[in-house]
Amino acid sequence: MKVTREKTENSQAFLRIEMEPAEVEESLEQSYHRLVRKASIPGFRKGKAPRAVLERYLGRDSLLEDALNNLLPQAYDEAVKEQEIEAIATPSIEIAQTDPVVFKATVPLKPTIELGDYHQIQLTPEPVELTDDEVDTVIEQLRRQHATWEPVERPANFDDLVALDIESHIEGKPFINQQGVQYQILHDQPFPVPGFAEHLPGMKGGEEKEFKLQLPKDYPRGELAGKEARFKVRVSEIKQQRLPELDDEFATSVNPDFKTFDSLRERISANLRLMAEEKARREFEERIIEAVVENSQVEFPPVLAEMEIARLLDQQMRRLQASDIGLEEYLGRINKTGEELREELRPLATKRVTSSLVLGRIAEEEKIEVADAEIDAELENMVQSATENKDEMQKLLDSPQARNSVEQILTTRKTIQRLVEIAGGSIDAQGK
């Protein structure tokens, strides 16, 4: 075997490996003995057909493919040892030629990380401000949630709730056909079709109306996108919203613990401030991380970005499955191919890998450590936070892999806390 290291770039080593004919022949012989025991060849008992007969029966290419599938991994392992290469992931292997056998391996190498002087980074958290308008918005949302609906004898208006019978078709085929649908008339309502809601104001109880709408080109059901839908609707009832008065009785209806409207408003204000402080904390940490990364030099093999893209796609798939949406349906809705979605995620994946590598190196520089007791406490919190199946959660977390994962999470968390200290502030100290 002859190994040539052609070049090293982008944290990858590019190897050219040429096999000796004797090595290939030995692997072919091993494949013959392995395959002949499985092959049913007319005129021969299993395992007794000569190699030449087996080659004619299966084809020499099939025998060579089996031989190389076993030979190449062994040859690759020997090659990286000979070149004293420390690979961090599975290589990309390409067979360049088969006579003689030559294959090329692209080997992912350890990332190189050169930190800037992150101790000189000084940032100030943005102050947390809460306005009365923000509190009023939440109160108005609660008010609408506790509103009642009462029938009215007048034409429908926007914000009314109407009972609808809907008939529709596209190119003569049924589209949406429902009876007694409760439908709130809202401006720019996309359901069932953009523009549908705008045809309802002014209709009276018992009145029918026919109209046509063009489905948008990005309509979720791709086969209907851009086509014309004909609707016939009948309003059977109109209701208007009755909002409760903002008084002590309203506060108690929201939660019996609130005896006065002022106490409700104070709690909402406190909760909004906590949320705003948490948001400010995350944004401050993100600014620090971006500043540290910007001052660092990082190079890593492309496979790390590919792995992160795969992880992001897996997360997205789980969210879709929870909503009973398949990947094909989702891609149709966003009008993208699977490859376009992957490329769309690449900048985010690259950013995450870069940040993770920089934070990992800073953890080493700052000698960040996580005690077993801290891991135990975090695992216990995760179990207690589970809303159901706590026993299953306990078993799932009771593994070395789970402990390692939690240790990494806590290490990153403590590293970011250390960077916040170095940058010269915290939300609690400066953000209020």
Summarize the model shown.
By secondary structure, this protein is an alpha+beta fold.
Descriptive terms for the model:
432 residues, alpha+beta, Alpha-Beta Plaits, Chitinase A, domain 3, Trigger factor, domain 2, 3 domains, six-stranded antiparallel beta sheet, four-stranded antiparallel beta sheet, 13 helices, disordered C terminus
Structure, explained:
This protein is 48% helix and 19% strand. By secondary structure, it is of the alpha+beta class. It folds into three domains: 2-110, Trigger factor ribosome-binding domain (Alpha-Beta Plaits, 2-Layer Sandwich), CATH 3.30.70; 148-242, Chitinase A, domain 3; 261-430, Trigger factor, C-terminal domain (Trigger factor, domain 2, Orthogonal Bundle), CATH 1.10.3120. Strands 6, 7, 8, 9, 10 and 11 form a six-stranded antiparallel beta sheet that branches. It has a four-stranded antiparallel beta sheet with strand order 1-2-4-3, covered by helices on one side. Strands 5-12 form a two-stranded antiparallel sheet. A hairpin with a 2-residue loop joins strand 3 and strand 4. The radius of gyration is 33 Å and the shape is extended. The model is unreliable at 426-432 (pLDDT under 50).
How many structurally independent domains?
3
Please give the alpha-carbon distance between the first and last residues.
68 Å
Based on secondary structure, the structural category is alpha+beta
User: Shape from CA axes?
Assistant: extended
Our count of helices gives: 13
The CATH topology assignment of the largest domain is Trigger factor, domain 2
What is the alpha-carbon Rg in Å?
33 Å
Which architecture of the largest domain does the CATH hierarchy give at level 2? Orthogonal Bundle
Q: Main sheet, how many strands, which sense, barrel?
A: 6 strands, antiparallel
Fourth-level CATH superfamily of the largest domain: Trigger factor, C-terminal domain
Report the helical percentage.
40-55%
* Unreliable segments of 5+ consecutive residues: 426-432
H and E string: EEHHHEEEHEEEEEEHHEHHHHHHH
What is the CATH class of the largest domain? Mainly Alpha
β-sheet strand percentage: 15-25%
**Count the strands?**
12
Mean pLDDT: 91
